[in-house]
Amino acid sequence: MLNAKLFLESILATILVFVVLGIFSTFPYDIKFLNPIKILMKDFKYTDIYYSKLAEKDKPINSEIVLVNIGNLDRAGIAATLNGLQQADPAVIGVDIMFYGQRDPLSDQFLKEELSRPNVVVTSILHAEEDPPTILTSNAFFGDLNYAYANLVAGDSLASTIREIMPFFDDGIYYDEAFTSKILEMYDSSAFEDLSMRGNEIETINYYGTYKQFIDYEGEQIIFGEFDPLSVKDKIVLLGYMGNFVGDASNLEDFKYTPLNHEVVGKSIPDMHGLTIHANILTMYMHRQYIDVMPKLLAFFLDFIICYIHVVLFMYLFVKLHLWYHLYAKLIQFITSVILIYILFYFYEMHHYLINATLILITVLISVDVLYLYETLAVVVYKKYGLKSYFIHEHGSNEE
Fold first, then answer.
1. pLDDT in tens, the chain (400 residues)
2. Is 125 contained in some domain?
3. Domain contains 250
4. Calpha distance 293→232 (Å, rounded)
5. What 3 state SS string does 338-391 have?
6. Which residues pair with 216 in a beta bridge?
7. Which of 64, 151, 174, 363 is deepest in the core (most CB within 10 A)?
8. What is the largest CA-CA distance in the chain?
């Protein structure tokens, strides 16, 4: 018969699991056996496995977006590239480049004229943490351009994985749009309205693919007319730095980590230029392939319930089949992980619904060992206060 204490104390043990997890995740010192947990808590999502290992790699090319790499072009070359693109009549040109200071007056003037065209959007940097918020733009010489912030949501954009975007910034006083949002507004007003109506401060990026899923050119190809004008006409063109050449991974400038990285945990080398990330965001907007995220409170409740169910089972096995406890527990953990990951991937791929379940996997993982700590605490409480635990009740030897 199942003991009522089993269900009651499983609640206490489940709470202890979360307490231990909180201590591990915030522990200030570098201890080897804690590192895997700290890494998973800090910068890992199960969706990284989906994008890196399971998602379809050979998706059709999104011909509505054209990537143009400036490589090592100077300002005169960038201006000439913009001029060449305009001859092909694109719908919008997004320039993901900041122009600090003034250089050659003639080149700067040529560039200013190209950047000032009505279908050009130029990146800025939003400092939302300042009061009031401020915007860092290119040199004042270029005038009041059509700016939009290029910030990507990450704890550290140089070391963290880019998974989210803030489409709009509105603190009630200051309003601004993201680089991709403003481009979308100019290209497809209906898609922009749908984005606005979602009302989300943060959107999870549904990655479409690498630069190979988009049409791409080198700036020199545009300058010398070595491209198909029809591939640019009425399209979105994103101009920015993608290495010395498209596909170059030797230069880490504006190179960032994304869920498509081949190394899921402990990433060593960034995998995608910022320009390609913007292309992925625009693709999500244009195709309305949004990711809906389970509310945090509901996700925590789901985590607690699943952890509690496993703690009940593990505690029962701990007492009734102690000799085989670890074997059975590890088997259950494996089966649970497989089933859970399958369910999570199903909802993510088929319904574009993100369940924040990293904690579920971690709590189920550590709960097996936390029960040893709980048993120790139960014995201490029994000896000091005489309160019997489920463990004490079942183990007569503990009462001696």
1. 457 888 999 999 999 999 988 887 666 555 554 555 555 555 567 788 888 887 887 899 999 999 999 999 999 999 999 999 999 999 999 999 999 999 999 999 999 999 999 999 999 999 988 888 999 999 999 999 999 999 987 555 567 889 999 999 998 889 999 999 999 999 999 999 999 999 999 999 999 999 999 999 999 999 999 999 999 999 999 999 999 999 887 777 888 999 998 877 666 688 999 999 999 999 999 999 999 999 999 999 999 999 999 999 999 999 888 889 989 999 999 999 899 989 999 999 999 999 987 788 889 988 998 999 998 998 888 888 878 888 775 444 444 3
2. yes
3. yes
4. 35
5. HHHHHHHHHHHHHHCEECCCHHHHHHHHHHHHHHHHHHHHHHHHHHHHCCCCHH
6. 67
7. 363
8. 92
For residues 275 and 360, state if they share a domain.
no
Are residues 263 and 392 both part of a single domain? Answer: no
Would 73 be classed as within a structural domain? yes
- The answer on 174 and 120 residing in a single domain is yes
Going from the C-alpha of 14 to that of each of 227, 280, 304, 356, the distances in angstroms are: 62, 40, 7, 19
For β-strands 62-69 and 214-218, DSSP reports them as parallel
240 CB contacts (<8 Å, ≥6 apart)? 68, 69, 70, 95, 96, 97, 254, 273, 274, 275
How far lies 8's CA from each of 204, 347, 378, in Å? 38, 32, 13
Q: Write down which residue in 290, 320, 344 finishes a domain.
A: 290
Report the number of distinct structural domains present in the chain: 2
Question: What DSSP state is assigned to residue 33?
Answer: G
Give me the residues paired with residue 121 across strands: 94
Pairing of strands 134-136, 120-127: antiparallel
Same domain for 13 and 109? no
- 354 strand-pairing partners: 293
Q: Which domain holds residue 336?
A: 4-43+293-399
According to DSSP, the residues that pair with 153 across neighbouring strands are 164
Domain boundary among 255, 272, 290: 290
Do 81 and 28 lie in one domain? The reply is no
- In a shared domain, residues 204 and 322: no
Instruction: Provide the whole-model pTM.
Output: 0.87
281 with 304, same domain?
no
Check whether residue 31 and residue 70 sit in a common domain: no
